[in-house]
Each structure stands twice: as C-alpha cells, then as structure tokens.
Specification:
It is found in: Cytoplasm. The protein has 247 residues and is mainly alpha-helical. The protein has helices at 8-23, 37-52, 96-107, 128-147, 149-159, 161-169, 173-180, 183-206, 215-243. The structure holds prephenic acid (PRE).
C-alpha cells in the first residue's frame, strides 16, 4: 500500500491559503473573458519547465493543464504484470479541464477585491502577471489534491475487489460512483474547509489587512463552492480511474 505521508489537512490548508491570496488580488476580468485561453497560454511555458523538472513523472500524481503529452503514459495490464489490487495503475484520465473550466466560469467571478497589493506610478493597480501566477499556483494545488483520488480509488477497489470488478466489467460508471461516494467524508471535508476559511479571514482582518467588508463572507462562499466542485471532480477522477483499472 502507498504511504500517504502528506496530510489531507495540509493539502486543504495550502489550497485554502492560495485561494485567500488570490481573492485578495484585484482581478482583471478581460483576462478571462475568452475562457481559459490566456490562463493556458500563461501556463504553457511554466508546464514545459515543470515537465523538465519531473513534476509530471510517473507516480507523482501531478498532471499538466496545457498538454497531455507532458504527463505520464497510462499503464497496460499484462499477464506478467497484472497490477494486483492495491497497486496503482496509471490511467489516461485527467480532471484538469474540468478544474480549469470551473475555475474560470465559477470561481473567478467571485474574485471581486477592489483593494490592490500593487501600486504603480501610472495609477494602475492591476498586475496581470501576478494574477495569472496566483491562478496557476492555485490550479496546480487543486489538481494534485483531486488526482490523489486515483490512490483513494485504488484503496477502495482493493477493499472490495469483487463488487468493483463486476461494476467495471459491466461498464457501470454510475454504480461505481454510488459505491465509492462517502457523504459523511464529504461533509467532514466541507466543514473543515469552512472552518479554515473562517480562521484565515479572521487572521487577515485581525492582522490589520485592509480588506473589503464582505471579505469574510466572500472567502467562505468561494471556499464552499470550490470544495464542493473539488469533491465532484475528485469523484469523477476516481470513477474514470476504476473504469480503466483493467486496461
Ligand atoms: O475520502 C474519500 O473517500 C474520497 O473518495 C475523497 C472524496 C473527496 O474528494 O474528499 C471524494 C468522494 C467521496 O464521496 C468522499 C470524499
């Protein structure tokens, strides 16, 4: 079994911190008016470099947004390597296009800070490069968090090989989704994310940050929407992973 040495709470808190930072940057709506295009153009050279540094190598559970070719090759099950239950089996699915669409369509419109960190002599207060860098950082954290669902799915499969095998062979993705969904765990994740959002906003306000009066509720709202979508996207990644388990 795999050692989950990094903590789920740490992933939640890091994503929450990145979201808090991003929410406090004054947005340039024109960056996103055409969809994900400018964001992807910004991320393309970054991801090329990330690929060279090994970020998307096999077993890192990190996947690129801009080119699937940078990511790991899917495993092929053979008689000599049947990938027994409990052994990770790389599948071809990435949830990143779902994540980036959700990000631009639903999350970015919630980034409405009128205060800015940036002060420029020409009186502008928006820094497009900083915005896209914060987006890219947040998206990468979210992607890793969601794709760890592949490891979670492998554990679930190993814990009930018979039922999952029947559903996978019947190509019953709805049945797989029902079997792997754990609403108690989902409620715990959402409650934890909400608690973290409250602590983060209290810390910013308490430390003297000059934020909008709606900052606390804006952060809570954005956090709730983000973690709900993240759970749904993670679930889809788990389902797709299992559907490809015997490939
Ligand atoms: O913890 C699990 O059991 C997961 O599958 C992860 C997760 C999540 O994204 O947090 C996703 C689906 C489940 O319904 C519950 C939680």
């Amino acid at each position: 079994m795999y050692h989950r040495t990094s903590s789920p709470n740490l992933r939640l808190l890091l994503s929450g911190t990145a979201l808090t930072v991003r929410l406090n940057l004054k947005t340039d709506p024109s960056l996103y008016s055409g969809g994900v295009g400018k964001l992807k153009a910004f991320m393309t050279p970054i991801e090329l470099e990330s690929g060279i540094l090994g970020r998307y190598a096999y077993g890192k559970i990190e996947y690129p947004y801009t080119s699937g070719a940078l990511g790991p090759s899917p495993d092929v099950t053979t008689k000599s390597n049947p990938f027994p239950p409990g052994r990770f089996h790389q599948d071809p699915f990435s949830g990143n296009s779902n994540l980036s669409s959700f990000y631009v369509q639903t999350l970015v419109p919630l980034f409405n800070s009128q205060k800015s960190f940036y002060f420029h002599l020409d009186n502008t207060t928006i820094n497009d490069d900083a915005l896209l860098a914060a987006d890219a950082n947040l998206l990468q954290l979210l992607s890793h968090r969601a794709h760890i669902g592949k490891i979670v799915a492998e554990s679930k499969y190993a814990a009930d090989v018979t039922t999952y095998t029947t559903l996978i062979k019947a190509r019953n993705s709805t049945g797989i989704k029902t079997l792997l969904t754990n609403t108690t765990q989902e409620a715990a994740v959402l409650a934890q994310a909400d608690a973290a959002a409250k602590v983060f906003s209290a810390a910013w306000v308490g430390s003297g940050a000059s934020v909008a009066t709606t900052f606390t509720s804006d952060l809570q709202n954005a956090t709730a929407k983000l973690f709900r979508a993240l759970i749904d996207i993670t679930t889809e990644i788990e389902v797709q992973y299992l559907m490809a388990r015997f490939n």
